[in-house]
């Protein structure tokens, strides 16, 4: 009675033992630019690496870069962990002045200019009429008119006050349970956690209002947040994403939507279930 | 810059400050029978309460009840925690003999007899053509021919070996990340965690194969698993679920699918995003 799962949890990445048309080739792996990687170091050396999405939310990512360069988050904390919802970090007091160069209320970037996936999901979902993965690996959706980046597990969103606030990017969150797709088109997505998600998803939940840690002692101190491009060369991590604009990735999505027997195929999947792998450069 | 979320994470439950047609009335709350509640006590007194679904998987729930009554899980452990996938518990050695009365390989209960939701979701999703919530609160879906209970976050599934095994119910898992909808129709759902989910979702992730804890020391000991009906009256918890066969719940689902301004409405949601509240009896 070996209780393993046939379906591994891993993203669409690793080559199987038997080569498959869904396996990536070397050229499918593309470098994440150093200034699109954010390295957040928590207490006890736990490191969370975020891939930024400047093409999707340029103003908010611009703020995030300035906040990192001015070391604004150093000494901040992870201050909110709400069960089956989000982990949130930044300045728990929400009173620390923003540094020069950060726009307090940028124009909304809840949506993106156009729906241009490289691979489309076979079926619509409850939140959109179509969805897919862009060539550079971002999950996107549309209602036929507007398009947006989806709030999958592990994506990084910009916390904000009630509308019309868009948030500055100083307070960030990531969904840690069922996806937070109902935030789509209402919050700005600035990136995706590509390493160290477990340091945010496995934190103790708070039962206080909104999952805010009730005491300072519960918070996880943030030691530093840096763009990889601002780190000394020797400390700089290098990541690659699996690109989606090739038949291998399309085959991987199709296989996820139509798994082989003995699995029963559902003929579809959620865009959040096919996020392309991101790895450290070998 | 108060970075709160407009949308609370709570299930569709609590009455708002201003009464709404989506608020439950007293009669909407119905008792969960004592023999449909499973109380799992972990080390350090952490308690996880599971609502069983005997109507959905009678043979496997029958096994689960026998395993509890014979105290088979006492001294077992939570032995697998895989990031963005599942937490799994039972006998880590997978060698402990099953007690008399437990069928090692019951007939498959991956599907249910019919798709009979009390409330239907407005839109299809990637895994089914229709979905909804049954009168007694279970998330179900259909492809037009077969019907099944969905693998939402916090549901309890039966781990198994490769097909045609159905698992006995001795090894159980719950999705702890993005939902595990791609297991629909391939695994048996026996229940839902209705209290204490954080004691399974916030455990340290294992980086060993399949997220199995690599050492015995990592495992979380299970002190006991009991049906509430087998506990002394004074220790017996009493739970109620919010029923779905009433216009209040239907209004709550519609509101989740079409939130009011200033939120932008997506006109839909996932069935996993509208699970009815379950609470301790007041």
Automatic annotation (TrEMBL), chains A, B:
Against SUPFAM superfamilies, the record matches this protein to:
Cyclophilin-like
Keyword Signal annotated: yes
Q: Which GO terms describe its molecular function?
A: peptidyl-prolyl cis-trans isomerase activity
Which PROSITE patterns does the record associate with it?
CSA_PPIASE_2
| Keywords noted in UniProt | Isomerase, Rotamase, Signal
Q: What is its EC number?
A: 5.2.1.8
Q: Could you tell me which residue ranges the PPIase cyclophilin-type domain spans?
A: 47-229
Tell me which InterPro entries the record gives: Cyclophilin-like_dom_sf, Cyclophilin-type_PPIase_dom, E_coli_cyclophilin_A-like
Q: Where does the secretion signal sit in this chain?
A: 1-15
Q: What Pfam families does the annotation carry?
A: Pro_isomerase
- Record's PANTHER family? PEPTIDYL-PROLYL CIS-TRANS ISOMERASE CYP38, CHLOROPLASTIC (PTHR43246)
In Swiss-Prot or TrEMBL terms, this protein is called peptidylprolyl isomerase
Task: Say which species the protein is native to.
Answer: Sphingomonas liriopis
């Amino acid at each position: 009675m070996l209780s393993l799962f046939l379906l591994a949890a891993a993203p669409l990445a690793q080559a199987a033992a038997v080569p498959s048309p869904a396996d990536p080739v070397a050229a499918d792996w593309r470098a994440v630019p150093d200034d699109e990687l954010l390295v957040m170091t928590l207490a006890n050396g736990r490191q969370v690496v975020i891939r930024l999405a400047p093409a999707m939310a340029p103003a908010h990512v611009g703020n995030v870069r300035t906040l990192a360069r001015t070391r604004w988050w150093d000494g901040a904390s992870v201050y909110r962990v709400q069960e089956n919802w989000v982990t949130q970090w930044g300045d728990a007091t929400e009173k620390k002045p923003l540094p020069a160069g950060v726009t307090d209320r940028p124009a909304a970037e809840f949506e993106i200019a156009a729906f241009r996936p490289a691979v489309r999901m076979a079926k619509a979902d409850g939140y959109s009429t179509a969805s897919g993965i862009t060539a550079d690996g971002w999950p996107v959706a549309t209602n036929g008119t507007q398009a947006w980046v989806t709030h999958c597990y592990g994506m990084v969103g910009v916390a904000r006050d009630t509308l019309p606030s868009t948030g500055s990017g100083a307070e960030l969150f990531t969904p840690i349970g069922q996806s937070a797709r109902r935030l789509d088109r209402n919050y700005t997505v600035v990136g995706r956690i590509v390493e160290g998600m477990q340091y945010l998803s496995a934190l103790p939940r708070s039962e206080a209002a909104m999952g805010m840690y009730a005491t300072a002692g519960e918070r996880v101190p943030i030691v530093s947040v840096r763009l990889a491009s601002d780190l000394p060369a020797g400390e700089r991590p290098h990541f690659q994403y699996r690109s989606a604009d090739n038949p291998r990735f399309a085959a991987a999505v199709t296989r996820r939507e139509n798994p082989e027997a003995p699995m029963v195929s559902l003929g579809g999947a959620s865009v959040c279930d096919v996020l392309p792998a991101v790895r450290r450069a070998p």
